[in-house]
């Protein structure tokens, strides 16, 4: 049967009859299944991040910062170390730094060099006994607690321990804002 309008281009005649219900049901199930597969694939990186974070918490990588004589009592000194979690392509960026404060003989605080605001390296000013951040003016007291400016908290601290006359820090995990209470055996609470 040809189309009665005679003006359209549907040379094949009337539109074909509706698809049988079975085919439609099959296509619906196929579409639903493909959407499910897509959703599962999209969830993989999210789950990886969540589970990865949980397993990273268990990592402990003690790094030797050096002999205790390098850190005199009452002083805060900059020192560097190689990040224990690196890849072969990291190059010089694997080298990082931290501030070591020797409160008194055998008692330390080891601060991450990165500001708790947006991560700029903070500097220690011994005369004023303050850490200053050059980026947005964040200021921290000598014990790492926040003094003023945009940082939402004090400097992050590495857990530390003494071993054979040497200062060691657990550099396997840099504490972050997601772990506000993170502190190791030797870190201040
Ligand atoms: S990064 Fe230090 S105050 Fe913003």
Name the overall outline.
elongated
Largest sheet: 4 strands, antiparallel
**How does the helix and strand content classify structurally?**
alpha+beta
Q: Runs with pLDDT <50, length 5+?
A: 182-189
Notes on the structure:
The longest helix is centred in the N-terminal third of the chain and has 36 residues, at about 20-55. By secondary structure, the protein is of the alpha+beta class. It has 2 domains: about 15-60; about 60-170, Rieske [2Fe-2S] iron-sulphur domain (Rieske Iron-sulfur Protein). The strands form 3 sheets. The chain has a 4-stranded antiparallel beta sheet with strand order 2-3-4-9, with no helix packed on it. The model is unreliable at about 180-189 (pLDDT under 50). It has one helix spanning about 20-55; strands at about 60-65, 75-80, 95-105, 105-110, 125, 130, 140, 145-150, 155-160, 160-165, 165-170. The protein contains 1 helix and 11 strands. The radius of gyration is 30 Å and the shape is elongated. FE2/S2 (inorganic) cluster (FES) binds near residues 120, 135, 137 and 138.
Give structural attributes.
28% strand, alpha+beta, 11 strands, binds FE2/S2 (inorganic) cluster, 189 residues, Rieske Iron-sulfur Protein, disordered C terminus, 4-stranded antiparallel sheet
Write the layout of secondary structure elements.
Elements: H1 21-56, E1 62-67, E2 76-82, E3 95-104, E4 107-112, E5 123-125, E6 130-132, E7 139-141, E8 146-148, E9 157-158, E10 160-163, E11 166-170
Antiparallel strand pairs: 1-11, 2-3, 3-4, 4-9, 5-6, 6-7, 7-8, 10-11
The structure holds FE2/S2 (inorganic) cluster.
């Amino acid at each position: 049967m040809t189309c009665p309008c005679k003006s359209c281009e549907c040379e094949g005649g009337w539109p074909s009859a509706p698809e049988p219900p079975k085919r439609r049901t099959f296509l619906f199930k196929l579409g639903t299944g493909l959407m499910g597969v897509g959703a599962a694939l999209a969830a993989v990186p999210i789950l990886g991040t969540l589970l990865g974070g949980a397993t990273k918490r268990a990592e402990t990588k003690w790094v030797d910062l050096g002999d205790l004589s390098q850190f005199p009592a009452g002083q805060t000194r900059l020192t560097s170390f190689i990040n224990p979690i690196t890849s072969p392509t990291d190059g010089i960026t694997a080298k990082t730094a931290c501030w070591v404060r020797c409160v008194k003989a055998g008692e330390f605080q080891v601060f991450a060099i990165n500001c708790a605001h947006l991560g700029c390296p903070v500097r220690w000013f011994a005369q004023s006994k303050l850490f200053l951040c050059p980026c947005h003016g964040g200021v921290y007291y000598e014990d790492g607690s926040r003094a003023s400016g945009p940082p939402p908290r004090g400097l992050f601290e590495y857990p530390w321990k003494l071993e054979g006359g040497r200062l060691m820090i657990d550099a396997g995990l840099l504490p972050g804002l997601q772990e506000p209470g993170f502190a190791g055996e030797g870190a201040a609470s």
